[in-house]
Write a structure and sequence with these properties.
The chain is mainly alpha-helical and about 110 residues long. It contains six helices and no strands. The longest helix is centred in the N-terminal third of the chain and has 19 residues. The protein is globular, with a radius of gyration of 13 Å.
C-alpha cells in the first residue's frame, strides 16, 4: 500500500496517495506497534502527503512523531533519521520558523 501511495506522490496526486498511506499506517500500527521503524516510515509518508498538499503544520506533526520513533529505535545517525530531520527542517522553513529549521539541518 505504501508503494502505491509513493506512485501517486510521483504522479503529483497526493490526495489519492493519502488513502493508501492511511491504510498502510493503520496496518503497521496494528501489526507492528507504534515503536517499530516501519510504523515510523508510514508516519513520514503521511507527512510527505501533507507537505505536498501545503498543510505544513500537519506534515510537521507526522514528521515529529516519526522522529521520536526513529531516535528511539534507529538512533540519530541512521540514514532514515537524517532524512526525517531534513523533512522537519523543510516543514519549519515553509512555516516561516527558520531558526527551528536550522536546528534540524545538518
Amino acid at each position: 500500500l505504501g508503494n502505491i501511495g509513493n506512485l501517486y506522490i510521483d504522479l503529483r496526486m497526493p490526495t489519492k496517495a493519502l488513502g493508501y498511506y492511511l491504510r498502510c499506517e493503520a496496518i503497521r500500527k496494528t501489526s507492528l506497534g507504534e515503536s517499530h521503524p516501519a510504523y515510523a516510515s508510514a508516519l513520514k509518508n503521511m507527512g510527505v502527503v501533507y507537505s505536498h498538499l501545503g498543510e505544513f503544520t500537519k506534515a510537521l506533526d507526522y514528521y515529529l512523531q516519526c522522529e521520536a520513533i526513529e531516535r528511539a529505535s534507529l538512533g540519530e545517525s541512521h540514514p532514515s533519521s537524517a532524512t526525517t530531520f531534513e523533512y522537519i527542517a523543510g516543514a519549519y522553513d515553509c512555516l516561516g520558523e527558520h531558526t527551528k529549521a536550522l536546528d534540524y539541518y545538518f
